[in-house]
Structures are given as C-alpha cells and as structure tokens.
C-alpha cells in the first residue's frame, strides 16, 4: 500500500495498515542516521516549516534533524518571534506559509484541534507535532517503533500507560496506535486523571500500579504536567509518587524484562525515581 | 390595504383550525378566516399546497445592537427573522450597554422604532451589567416596556438575590427567563463532557451544570410564586426536573433550540466551531429526551437562541472561538425536517411551540389568527428543500451549524402587522 493522506493529525485517524507503513518506512530510514554522511534525497526540493506555538526542544529538533537528513529545506518559526505576536490568526499564518510554496507545516500548538483546523484550511500537508491534550502522533509512533524494536512485535503485548492520562496528548496517541496494532493497553492513574469514557478507546483502566506492572511487557510513564492546567484537580506530588511512582522496589516485583519508557521531560522523584530515570537497561 | 390568502392549509391551534381555508387581512388585522372567501383584495396570494400559520414568536434572539453592530443589527436580524417566518422576537439584553436601566432600554427602543422590520420586544436584565451583584431597576424596566427579565449568558449565582429578583418580577408582572448554568460546574468547558471531549482533548461541560441550576431556579420559583421560563434546555435530566415541577403546579415553562433536537456531540469530531454553543450539543440520549419532551408537552417553546458571531470570532482555535450559532433563518426548516417529517410533532403542535405558547408565556395577543388581532401570518412551502450556505443566509453573521445540510421547508411570505415583510 502507499500513503494517500495529505496530513498526519493523529493516530485515531489512521488505519492499522497506515501505521504499519510508517513504522516500516521509518525502519529503513533509521540506518541513514548511522552513516557517515547522514543524508538521503527523499525530500530534496521540499520545504518544511516548523511552526511552534509552544516551547519545545525534543520535538522541534527531532523534526528539524529528520527533515534535514531527508534533504528538505527547513524553516523554523517560533510564535514568540513571529507575526503571531502581532495578532495574526493561525489560518492567516498558515496561508502565508502556503503562499511561499512550502510543502509541509509541522505544528505544535497549545489548543486541541489546531492542527485539524489548519489542515482543513490549507492545501499543503500538516503534520501535528502535538495539539493541546488531543494528539501527539509522532511521539506515539516513536514509542511504538521503540517497543517493536525492543520486543519484536506489538500485537498481543501488554502495555501500561501510567500517569496524567486526562491532560496527555501522548497518552491519547499511544492508546489509539497501540490498540489498532493489537496491543492490550492498561491505563493506570488516580481516578481524577482518567478522562470520561476513555475505556471506549479499547483500553482498560486500573488504579493499582503493582497489579498492572505484574503483567506489563512495557510501561510508558507520562510526565505529570503540574504546570499546564491550573484549574484541574491534581494529586499531591509526594502522594502520587508513593502510589504511582515507578521505583526500583516496584520494578523488582514487575514482569521480568519490562521495558520502561518516558516521553520526557522527566520529573525525577514524581513519576519515577531518579535511579530508574538514569538506568539504561534492566 | 387588504391581502387575501387563498386555499392554504390554515393551522391555528388557538382557534382549533387545521383545514384548507382562506385568510383575509384588512387594515393590518385578521378580518376573516373561512372557506371560499370572495373579496376583491389589493393583494391576492395563492397558497394552494402551502401551510398558512401565525408568524413565529421567537423568544430568544440576540440582536447584538447596541454594541456589536459588526455581528448583527436590529435591521439585519429582523430581516433574517422575516425570512425565517418570524414576526416577533424577544431581544436578549446582553448588549453593550446591557439593558439594565431605563436609559439603555429607551436607546434600544429608538433603534427598534427606526430599523426593525418585524415586532421586537425588549427584555431587561435581572442584575446590573448582568454581574449577579445588584438588581437592575426592575420596575423601571417594566414601565419602559420590557416584557421579561433575564441575565442571559449568565445565571444569578446568589440564591438570595435571585429570590429577591423573582419577588420583584412577580410584583411587576414580569416573566423571568433563566439561563440556568452553574459555572462552577461548567468551568472552562467548551463541549459536552463525554467520550468525545476525551478523544478531542477538550474540556467538558457536564449535564449537571444545567440541570442542577434548573433545580435551583425552580425551587426559587416555587418559593416566590413567580413565573420562570427556562431557556435553552438541552439535556435529559432537565426535562425530567421540569416535568416534575409542572406536575406540582410550579409556574415553570421552558424552551429548547433546534440544534438540541437535530444535532449531537458527534457533530464536533472535526472541531467545527459552528457546532460550539452553550449549552453544548449533548448525547444521543439527551437528544431523544428533548424530542420526547417536545412530544409530551414538557417543552413548551422552540426558540432559536440566535447568537451571531463574526468569522474572526469563529474561524479560530476551537477553545478560543465564541459560543453560539445563528438560527432565525433555519429554525422552522430544521423543525419541519426533524419534528414534522419524523412524526415527532404534527403541525398544530409545532405551531403551538413556535407561536401560541411563546405568545401566551409573554402575555401577547399574538401567535394566532383570531379575527381582529394584528395580522402576523407566515405562508410555508413545507417540503421545499434547500441547503443553507454563507450566500443564502442574510443574517450579518454566518455561524450556522446547518451550513451544507439539506433541510425541508421554506417560507414563501411573511406578513407582519398586515404588511408583507418577506417574499421568497
């Protein structure tokens, strides 16, 4: 099969085959990064614009590196230094970029649905690099790619996602991607951080981390975004660590060979102990 | 001046008429409703195969003037209303200035007298600047012609102040219209709370923010003996609570808007800001309860909650976009499509909810075709299909949730106070 979609907005919108196509394609490109000359001409002559309305290090640099290794011309726009500061609307900004004959806009935005809106307004491709609490498809694709590399497959795996599910776009994208590929997903969080109806995605929920870790082949630990939402109810940080933090003691009782992942940035001592955060493999 | 409307199917529940008849209008009043009227009128309208009904009384309309003439004006809204078959609107008071004093109301009345194409009734606020802190000049507003009070867009949170308002409204024989919403519960929510708010990553508004406040407003109505009208009912629990209150004899009436019986939260999956309103589009179960409430007579009125917003306020990120949709030009068509054609209501029942009931609730001698009354008449091609779009909507703002959807029923003529104010 070949890729037919204009945009990459979220894993909810992709089929199993489309997700597998991306993962397979990524595998062949991974080798490029190990060469002495880290460049292939796949996107030669194309222009990719990184349009970031939220601070980001990892995602922005990852996109820039990837686009450059594929030979695209890359332009970075951060909202603090652009006409966004002058009150330009998102759609106007997008249309201006389109008028410059850019081919792809890679956007990070703090509002859920911003990428969907931009994609609808433009003819050029939009890649969602994270929108509000909605989706962060490339982070989830990376997580799934890594899991597949470590464990050889996705289908039938027991994957736990622990932490602030309610406010996490990484969680949503991982849930959609993993369930579409046949993994059994369990979400583990205090009740206040499990959003309404989340089990309709096909994921199970639990509030007992130790039970979950006993069966999990992998655990994806989410960042507790205490800084993000002032009006949401959050547990006390220390209490959260006590009940849900990933520690050496907990992992000692977990399923053997469990893969521990974190999308970063890590709050050491809140969602996982400092030792675990540093440790490379178990 | 005389108009003779021949051979239409006349629907006038006030006079228990539902038959093919002629309607004669003379000197701006209904002069005769009968079969085979022979009269040489100035204007003859052939209404064969058409519905002839009283003009719609829409008791929930935001005209935006004074203050936001970029969104809508009295002139543009009343033209849109006439196109939709509406002959009387109640203007919501959340303008700038708000209708919280006689001076502001007089300013609005002057604008209305200069530019309104149909009847525009005024509504005062319950509290000054709708802040919920201090009561408006309720008796002054009444004397100046307001026929209801409402803080629409806000609810008066303070129980003591609301009770006081209801007592004053009762004393002044004014209806109180309640925007029943507990904002401590709805918070920063932008769509209905549920699986869709979860998958879209948007903050949710639970049904409780509506029905808990309705419960309170009804308790205060009971305590004060005042009549309250609950605006834009959107969910199942609200219908149940209002049904019980009516059974107990509490003076409560209510309305819903066409989008609550035609669209659900599933319309939001593309983040379409024209589907964003408050209260939000709810679940399938809520929609079914609204339809049942209309059928059972629990919901008395259909009103548009016409809320125009500019493209600048809608073509932006979903959570930043304004709440509200336009509805004057589509309310009748949506109701024909969803209620008549799906056999939820028959024509006399629909006309009750659009005309007779709102007129009675507001104490008007309109909403009927009684001989001697002002001639407010609408002639409807009830199965004429059309698709609303940004070109054929004449309201200044185009934020309709029905853009691109096929609807049945178009207005051929709207006659207001005996004059043709719209002709297709």
Structure report:
- The complex is a heterodimer of chains A (282) and B (424).
- With 282 residues, chain A is α/β, with parallel strands linked by helices.
- Chain A folds into 2 domains: 121 residues, Aspartate/ornithine carbamoyltransferase (Rossmann fold, 3-Layer(aba) Sandwich); 142 residues, Rossmann fold, CATH 3.40.50.1370.
- Helices cover 34% and strands 16% of the residues of chain A.
- Chain A contains 10 helices and 9 strands.
- The longest helix of chain A is centred in the N-terminal third of the chain and has 15 residues.
- Chain A is globular and about 55 Å long.
- Chain B has 2 domains: 78 residues, Roll (Urease, subunit C, domain 1), CATH 2.30.40; 308 residues, Metal-dependent hydrolases (TIM Barrel, Alpha-Beta Barrel), CATH 3.20.20.140.
- Chain B is globular.
- Chains A and B meet through helix 4 of A and helix 6 of B.
CATH architecture of the largest domain in chain B: Alpha-Beta Barrel
State the secondary-structure class of chain B: alpha/beta
Query: Roughly how many Å is the radius of gyration of chain B?
Result: 20 Å
Superfamily (CATH H level) name of the largest domain in chain A: Aspartate/ornithine carbamoyltransferase
Q: In CATH's first tier, which class of the largest domain in chain A applies?
A: Alpha Beta
CATH topological fold name of the largest domain in chain A: Rossmann fold
How far apart lie the N and C ends of chain B?
A: 21 Å
- Largest sheet entry of chain B: 8 strands, mixed
Instruction: State the domain count of chain A.
Output: 2
Name the biggest interface.
Answer: A-B, 26 and 22 residues
Helix content estimate of chain B? 25-40%
What's the number of extended β-strand segments of chain A?
9
- How many H/I helices of chain B? 12
CATH topology of the largest domain in chain B: TIM Barrel
- Named at the architecture level, the CATH assignment of the largest domain in chain A is 3-Layer(aba) Sandwich
């Amino acid at each position: 099969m070949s890729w037919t979609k204009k945009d990459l907005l979220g894993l909810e919108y992709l089929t199993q085959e489309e997700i597998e196509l991306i993962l397979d394609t990524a595998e062949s490109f991974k080798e490029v990064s190990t060469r002495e000359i880290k460049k292939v001409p796949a996107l030669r002559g194309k222009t990719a614009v990184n349009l970031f309305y939220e601070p980001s290090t990892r995602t922005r640099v990852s996109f820039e590196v990837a686009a450059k290794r594929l030979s695209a011309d890359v332009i970075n726009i951060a909202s603090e230094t652009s006409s966004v500061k002058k009150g330009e609307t998102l759609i106007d900004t997008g249309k201006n970029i389109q008028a410059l004959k850019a081919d792809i806009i890679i956007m990070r935005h703090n509002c859920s649905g911003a990428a969907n809106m931009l994609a609808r307004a433009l003819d050029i491709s939009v890649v969602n690099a994270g929108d509000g609490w909605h989706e962060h498809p490339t982070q989830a694709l990376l997580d799934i790619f890594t899991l597949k590399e470590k464990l050889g497959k996705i289908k039938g795996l027991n994957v736990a996602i622990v932490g602030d599910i309610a406010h996490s776009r990484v969680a949503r994208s991982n849930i959609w991607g993993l369930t579409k590929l046949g993994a059994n997903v369990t979400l583990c969080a205090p009740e206040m951080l499990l959003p309404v109806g989340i089990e309709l995605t096909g994921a199970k929920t639990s509030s007992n981390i130790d039970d979950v870790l006993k069966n999990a082949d992998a655990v994806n630990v989410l960042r507790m975004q205490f800084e993000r939402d002032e009006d949401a109810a959050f547990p006390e940080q220390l209490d959260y660590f006590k009940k849900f933090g990933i520690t050496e003691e907990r992992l000692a009782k977990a399923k053997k060979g469990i893969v521990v992942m974190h999308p970063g940035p890590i709050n050491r001592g809140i969602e996982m102990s400092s030792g675990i955060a540093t440790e490379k493999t178990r | 001046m005389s108009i003779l409307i021949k051979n239409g199917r006349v629907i006038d529940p006030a006079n228990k008429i539902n038959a093919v008849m002629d309607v004669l209008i003379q000197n701006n009043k209904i002069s005769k409703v009968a079969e085979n009227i022979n009269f040489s009128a100035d204007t003859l309208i052939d209404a064969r195969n058409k519905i002839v009904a009283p003009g719609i009384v829409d008791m929930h309309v935001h005209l935006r003037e004074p203050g936001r003439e970029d969104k809508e004006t009295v002139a543009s809204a009343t033209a849109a209303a006439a196109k939709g078959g509406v002959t009387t609107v109640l203007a919501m008071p959340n303008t700038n200035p708000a209708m919280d004093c006689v001076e502001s109301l007089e300013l609005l009345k002057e604008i209305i007298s200069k530019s309104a194409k149909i009847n525009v009734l005024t509504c005062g606020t319950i509290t000054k600047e709708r802040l919920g802190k201090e009561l408006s000049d309720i008796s002054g507003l009444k004397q100046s012609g307001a026929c209801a009070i409402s803080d629409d867009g806000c609810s008066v949170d303070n129980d003591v102040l609301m009770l006081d308002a209801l007592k004053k409204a009762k004393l002044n024989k004014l209806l109180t219209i309640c925007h029943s919403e507990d904002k401590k519960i709805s918070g920063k929510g932008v769509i209905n709370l549920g699986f869709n708010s979860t998958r879209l990553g948007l903050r949710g508004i639970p049904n409780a923010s509506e029905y808990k406040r309705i419960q309170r407003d009804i308790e205060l109505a009971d305590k004060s003996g005042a009549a309250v009208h609950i605006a834009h009912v959107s969910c199942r629990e609200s219908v149940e609570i209002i049904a019980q209150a009516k059974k107990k004899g509490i003076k409560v009436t209510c309305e819903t808007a066409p989008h609550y019986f035609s669209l659900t939260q599933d319309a939001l999956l593309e983040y379409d800001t024209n589907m964003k309103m408050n209260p939000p589009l709810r679940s399938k179960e809520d929609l079914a309860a609204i339809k049942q409430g209309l059928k059972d007579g629990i919901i008395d009125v259909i009103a548009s909650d016409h809320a125009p917003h500019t493209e600048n306020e809608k073509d932006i990120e979903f959570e930043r976009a304004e709440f509200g949709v336009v509805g004057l030009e589509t309310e009748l068509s949506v109701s024909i499509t969803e209620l008549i054609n799906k056999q939820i209501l028959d024509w006399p029942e629909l006309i009750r909810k659009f005309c007779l009931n709102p007129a009675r609730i507001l104490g008007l001698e309109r909403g009927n075709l009684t001989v001697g009354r002002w001639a407010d008449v609408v002639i409807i091609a009830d199965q004429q299909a059309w698709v609303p779009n940004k070109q054929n909507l004449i309201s200044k703002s185009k934020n309709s949730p029905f853009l691109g959807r096929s609807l049945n029923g178009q207005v051929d003529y709207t006659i207001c106070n005996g004059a043709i104010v719209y002709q297709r």
